[in-house]
Amino acid sequence: MNERLSRRDFVRGAALAGVAAAAAPEVLQGFAGAPAVITRAARSLVIASANGHRYRAGGRQTAVEKAFASLTSGADVLEACVAGVNVNELDPEDTSVGYGGLPNAEGVVQLDSSCMHGPKKRAGAVAALEGVRTPSLVAKAVMEHTDHHLLVGKDAQRFARQMGFTIEDDLNTDTSRRLWLEWKRRTDPEHFPGKSRSDAAVRAGLSMVADGLIDAEHFWGTINLDALGPRGEIAGATTTSGLAWKIPGRVGDSPILGAGLYVDQDVGAAGSTGRGEANLYNLCSFLIVENMRRGMHPKDAALDALRRVQKNTVEKHLLNARGLPNFGLVFYVLNGKGEYAGVSLYPDRQYAVCTENGPQLLDCDALLTGTASDA
Ligand code: ASP
User: Fold this and answer.
1) 187 Cβ contact partners less than 8 Å away, ≥ 6 residues apart
2) Does the pLDDT value for residue 189 go beyond 60?
3) 204: helix, coil or strand?
4) What are the CB-based long-range contacts (under 8 Å, 24+) for 12-16?
5) N or C: which end of the chain has fewer CB within 10 A?
6) Whose CA is closest to 225, among 272, 267, 264?
7) Sign of the dihedral defined by the CA atoms of residues 364, 225, 136, 4, in that order
8) Could you tell me if 255 and 220 are in contact, meaning their C-beta atoms sit under 8 angstroms apart?
9) What is residue 74's predicted lDDT score, i.e. its pLDDT?
10) Mean pLDDT lowest among 21-35, 120-134, 360-374
11) What is the pLDDT of residues 1-45, one digit of tens each?
């Protein structure tokens, strides 16, 4: 909670909004298409990756605070999620998302994002989008203004231009450019694009993490934010600059439904940060939501998905000396009852939540002990 918005004001504002919402009709207005009938009353809740309560983009609120405040002042649930992740997209200090995100191997910032609206049963996404600071807003525009789900690359940018978004030549900041040049210095470009080159690239990146030049959460980094609104409405958004120094055109899990994000209005929401390929191989967000549909608590649902990831991780270069995955993967999960969990492969990660009690960073529950790099 920041100084200018006291905790008491925050809680009072949220409580008033809750009262207003409780008195609201059960049929939600304002959605495109048929109005959605929501029968469940719930306490409002926002869950996000830990960077959702670290950056403020020069403003007063972090992503979870912003999303919660919007949600409890009557905003549409997905509007609230996107308003939240916009904070990280616009903050140049968050080098894992949006403007100032770490670029690909050619020094170009390429962004992926998806969003999903529970009551509307619609979703939108963009991948490998260049030049727009807020890819989550473009993903939402795909959802709202087209009959498609996913636009990619130059054509996603053309769509964004047509929708009135500002297109910039370069989304690098001095920091992201300096770090990319350091990575170039540490890698051997002659091996491009073989597996040995991938290994060398990851080694160079991890050596930059070890040297304190970037933190692990920004080598792989993203923001996922999911929300449960006062009338039980559920939505989520995921947005990222993807794996740092990726091969140009590489798309991770973030814009892929069922991987980086999945929402089902009857069940709940799940989203992820971490090694996208491991998530894509197992479509974990979908698996987690389906596990919850069968009655599992968010924590158990996500642990089950991580067990699947561990079982399906067999390539030697992805295993540490203990034979366990040598990467991080985290899921942020909530259900319609307002239960939630942040669950990671290893116990070194946090996640953010915001409820009527204010924002908090909490430790993730973990599947494994030790660290990803354990010898
Ligand atoms: N999951 C994202 C990707 O693989 C990046 C991350 O969260 O680290 O693109």
Assistant:
1) 197, 200, 201, 204, 245
2) no
3) helix
4) 13/69, 13/72, 13/73, 14/44, 14/68, 14/69, 14/72, 14/356, 15/356
5) C
6) 272
7) negative
8) no
9) 94
10) 21-35
11) 333 334 444 434 443 333 333 333 333 433 333 334 444 446 899
The residues, any chain, with a CB within 8 Å of residue 345's CB and separated by 6 or more, are 274, 306, 309, 310, 325, 327, 328, 329, 330, 366, 367, 368, 372
Q: What is the pLDDT of residue 343?
A: 98
* Cα 111 to ligand 1 centroid, rounded to whole Å: 11
Start and end residues for every CATH 3.60.20.30 domain found in the chain: 45-366
Among protein residues, the one with the nearest Cα to ligand 1's atom 8 is 220
Please, which pLDDT band fits residue 76 given cuts at 50, 70 and 90?
very high
Is any atom of ligand 1 closer than 6 Å to the C-beta of 113? Answer: no
Whether 274 lines ligand 1, by a CB cut-off of 6 Å, is: yes
Task: Report which secondary-structure segment, H or E, holds 235.
Answer: strand 234-240
pLDDT reported for residue 209:
79
Does residue 238 have an active-site annotation?
A: no
pLDDT at residue 191 tops 50? no
Integer Cα distance of 165 and 158 in angstroms = 10
CA 16 distance to own-chain centroid: 29
Quick check: pTM over 0.70? yes
- In CATH terms, the fold of domain 45-366 is Glutamine Phosphoribosylpyrophosphate, subunit 1, domain 1 (3.60.20)
For a mutational test of ligand 1's pocket, the pick from 113, 240, 318, i.e. the residue with the most ligand atoms closer than 8 A to its C-beta, is 240
- Cβ atoms within 10 Å, residue 94: 26
Read off the amino acid at residue 158: R
Q: DSSP letter at 290?
A: H
CA distance 201 to 195: 10
Pairing of the two strands 111-117 and 45-49 = unpaired
In this model, does residue 294 exceed pLDDT 60? yes
